[in-house]
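Subject: Interface between my chains keeps coming out wrong

I've been trying for a while to get a sensible model of this assembly. When I model each chain on its own everything looks fine, but I need the whole thing in one frame so I can look at the contacts. Pasting all components below, labels as-is. Any help appreciated, I'm running out of ideas.
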Amino acid sequence: MCELLGMSANVPTDIVFSFTGLMQRGGRTGPHRDGWGIGFYEGRGLRLFQDPRASSESEVAQLVQRYPIKSEVVIGHIRQANVGRVCLANTHPFMREMWGRNWCFAHNGQLADFQPVQGFYRPVGDTDSEAAFCELLNQLRTAFPEPVAVQQFLPVLVSACVHFHHQGVFNCLLSDGDWLFAFCSTKLVQITRRAPFGPAHLKDVDVIVDFQGQTTPNDVVTVLATEPLTANEQWTLQQPGEWSLWRSGECVLRGQS
Amino acid sequence: MCELLGMSANVPTDIVFSFTGLMQRGGRTGPHRDGWGIGFYEGRGLRLFQDPRASSESEVAQLVQRYPIKSEVVIGHIRQANVGRVCLANTHPFMREMWGRNWCFAHNGQLADFQPVQGFYRPVGDTDSEAAFCELLNQLRTAFPEPVAVQQFLPVLVSACVHFHHQGVFNCLLSDGDWLFAFCSTKLVQITRRAPFGPAHLKDVDVIVDFQGQTTPNDVVTVLATEPLTANEQWTLQQPGEWSLWRSGECVLRGQS
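Reply #2:
Try treating it as a single job with all components included. I did that and got this:
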């Protein structure tokens, strides 16, 4: 299994605090030694850092922890390999251009007997996760060759996720830089931080941050993760089959399949 | 105008030396202040570092200079913007998946009155370079919906490059991780280093490296660049209209259009 990290915010926000917590689970407080990756949107651009090495030992991970990249949408992942060997091509998150935007995807779980249909988007590595991402995009592009609003293609996306959910375990995060979509198959938690901000204490390492000093009263920041990252805050558990769509830190649509 | 850097080698080789020289031109010894990027293939995976800031001031560039990533194919670029504002989405190299491989592209030059045909691959940013890359891929994918050997699609690729060359300035580097393709429209130089290796002295900064201590007698490493990067070696000038295909450091095919 792997761990997911997602962020949606209404102002460019740095994810260093949450990332620092997650990284500990990549070989130190958790067993996810088989790589990590994180994608930050900057406008329509996507900045992707990945490493097939354990995050707790990765030089690139140290850079990301030192370097406060600010973004409104972030997708991160640490990996404990089950399908596909440990190499860069098998390291989440995966990225493809669709409709002139960078789409970014990370998956936690596994799909038994998944036989992807060959389409336009094709996996480069050999994980079931990347194959499922390509299948999602192929289904969307087949249904909508030209760009449409997220509300319009959402039913196709949700129905593909539900199909994968019935074939195995399919917790996922997906974004095109504008919105962040989450599907909970077994495990996904979320927290929305807004004023009044207080201190937060990481579970996995002795780090406390006081968000009040780093925020303005209008900031809204939602973090999604496989497991709660802080010890002193109340995280909301999503239900199996629950999906949600986030924009600017707020949940704009959600449903239960 | 911009500057290109490419490498093809028969063993995983670090590009730190050449990259260090190129980075100086991003704001220190050269005017290319509008971003830089470099893509390293690791197997079928592509590791991309990019920054819309000047390379001589970029923290990510410093990481890349400290961190000897070894690769058999590398494509790098520093940018002086002419078309498209300075932002991550407009920063080379660009990347797309085609036929289940990561394709990477960088361009030096500009295309006057270029009207791309809308196809499957679409630009995310607003540079003529990314639009030309999408057009190249769309032409290849239309001609060959399924993967074929590079020798088979090369005529389509060369003909598209010649077309761009006639529309403006189109020096480019392109790779799918297996081979490295170069097209010289106005300016491109190359050097192939093999035993006996000697010292090399960067033009742009006082750095000397003795390749003998870092290589084995069988190593073959070709570097392509817009301008020679070293002062004490003989670089070969490519001719306008010349194209070349490199694999494992050797030129496997070349032609003059």
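Reply #3:
Confirming on my end. Chain B is about 20% helix and 35% strand.
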